[in-house]
Structure formats: C-alpha cells, structure tokens
Amino acid sequence: MHRYFKNSVIKQPGYGAPPQEAMIAKLNQNESPFDLPAALKQDILGRAAALPWNRYPVHESPSLKTELARWHNLSPDQFLLGNGSNQLLQTILSGCIEPGEQVLCCPPTFSLFEMYIELYGGEPLLIPYLPANTAPEEQIVQAIQARQPKIVLLCSPNNPTGSEFSPSFVEKVCHDASGLVVVDEAYAEFSEQTFVPLLQSCKNLVLSRTFSKAFSMAGLRLGYLMADAEVLAQWRKVNLPYNVNLFTELVGITLLAQRDVIRKQVDYIICQRNWMLAQLNAIPEIKAYPSAANFLLFSCPDSKALFSFLKGRGILVRDVSSYYGLGNHLRVNAGHEGENQLFINALLEFYQR
Ligand SMILES: Cc1ncc(COP(=O)(O)O)c(C=O)c1O
Fold this sequence. Notes:
Layout (H helix, E strand, L loop, with lengths): L6 H4 L14 E2 L11 H12 L12 H11 L6 E4 L2 H12 L5 E4 L5 H9 L3 E4 L10 H11 L3 E5 L11 H10 L3 E5 L20 E6 L12 E4 L2 H10 L7 H11 L2 H23 L5 E2 L6 E5 L3 H10 L2 E2 L1 E2 L9 E5 L3 H14 L3
Helix pairs in contact: 3-9, 4-5, 6-7, 10-12
Bound molecules: pyridoxal-5'-phosphate.
C-alpha cells in the first residue's frame, strides 16, 4: 500500500472524528444546541423543492456573497465560499505552500492545522502556548522576524484553549510578516472582538469563518474566507467549482436574514458558558480557563476516568489530553441549560461533592 501514496499521507494518523453516539448531553463538538425551528425547515424545504436540482448552482453563489458582504460591511469580492471552513484550509495551503515551506502555528490548536500543513508538504513552525494558556505573543513576533514563514496560521478564539489574540497584536503580526496571516475565527460570534476591521489596512490578513457553530449549520457544511479581493482571486483558481450546493446556499442566505434570532442564541450560549465556568471552578479538583468561545477547557486530576464516568452517564465531552501540553484536560461545550446542569451534577457526583 505504501508505494501508492505520498509519504506525507502515509505518516498521518488521519482526522480522529469524535464519537457521535446518541447521548443525553452531547457537548463534545462545539456545535450549536439549537437546531433550526421545524417551521423554518419546512419553509426552506419548500423553496429548495422549487429550484432546478438538475442544474449546477450559480458559480460562486453571488447572492450568498452579497448577503455576507452586507452582514460584515465588506464587498462581495472579499469573500470566498467553502464546503465548511476545513475545505478552505485545504484551498489556502494547496494554493500557497511549496514543499518545505514553513507555516507558523501555535499548539495546542485545531488538530487539522498541523495535519494539513504536512499533507501539503509544508513544515509546521510550532510556537507553543505558554502555561496557563498564555498566548505566546513575543515568541511569535521573534519567530516571524527570524524565519519569515510563508503563512502565519492563528486561531482566535483558539480551539481548544478558548483564548484570544488582541487586534493590536494581529495588526503587528500582519505588519511584521512578509507572508499571509490567516486567522481561523470559527468561534468569533461568541467573542466580543473580531479582526474584520483590520481587513481595511492589512492586505495580507485572511479571516476564516464557519456556519457550523453560531449558525447551527454543522450538518450542511458552509464556511467562508474574508480577505483582500486580489488575494482571494488567486485562491478562486484553486477552490473547487460548485463546492457550495444550492441547498446549503439557500439555508445560508435564509439564516443571514435572521440576525436577531442568531444574536439571541449566541447570547444564551455565552450566558451558559459563563455559568459553567463558575460552576467548574467551584469544584476544588478542577481548574477551568476563561473562554471567548462556546466551549471551556479544564484540567482535572484524572481526565480519562472522568471522561469514562461522564460517558457512562450519557454525557459526551472531548478528551483533549493527547493535545500538546494538555495532559489531564477535557473540553466541554455549552449546550442547553438542562444538558449543562446534568454535566455539572455528574461532576459533583464524581468528586463526591
Ligand atoms: C478552529 C476550528 N476551525 C474550523 C472548524 C471546522 O469548521 P467547519 O465545520 O466549517 O469545517 C472547527 C470545528 O470544530 C474549529 O474548531
């Protein structure tokens, strides 16, 4: 088998998709706990049925880009659409990385970063987070000055730490870097900040967003990049044509018209996240970190035993103990109030509090 494939493929373990069993509380993939209301689904299905499914969708979904441009106050040519933001990570790396070129990223972070950098022949330049989840800002600046990587790939809020870089820091990175600065903002809707205003002045800044979290569309796959139009023009040649199907496009456009509903759901999730943080830190064995995303990272004395105990109670969290520097850590996302309460009750039971 080995002779059929590239070495960079053979040596990868592949994406370890977390379990998706039916559970009482599924808090392991940072999804939205809110599905679309049944009436809205019916309405969308009706409109989808009236579309010609035998025809290709309109190339590059101009109507969706127009709605996104309105949402972010940018122009439609500053958007590139993807079949989920993961697919756009492939577009980014395959369009830019020649064998051996460096991509800076900061572990622990989204597991696909390192995997795809290597699959596309790049060399990860790893600048780890510091203890207590401190962003390694000084070290990033030094590495950029010394090595000038082809791409600086950051995640903010970062999965799985929940920590953020500041806009002034990202602006400095864009200024210092001779290459592109890509920031995965998959969780930006749960944060009080975004780097979108920096797109005006930082022509090498690229922001990646997804509809999988705040917009409840993980099952339908929609993501997008925001950047300078000239930068995106190159990736348009790399991106697969018709990568967003007409149903996903229709749901995306529909949800962008529901700004108040999305805002209300995001506020609910933030409120639940903050409640869970306080509850977690009230348990002496646990140390949970503040988070600007829809999930929390916490350490505990025996993460494997706790993970299994929770699973036995029908509660699924993410075991991140194999991530860089995160031995004995778990990640849990904010779900519905009832699910979150079950999770906290199970922890209290486990620690006999
Ligand atoms: C940082 C980050 N980026 C991207 C994704 C995936 O986004 P999508 O569903 O749009 O591919 C995730 C999913 O968990 C994530 O944590």
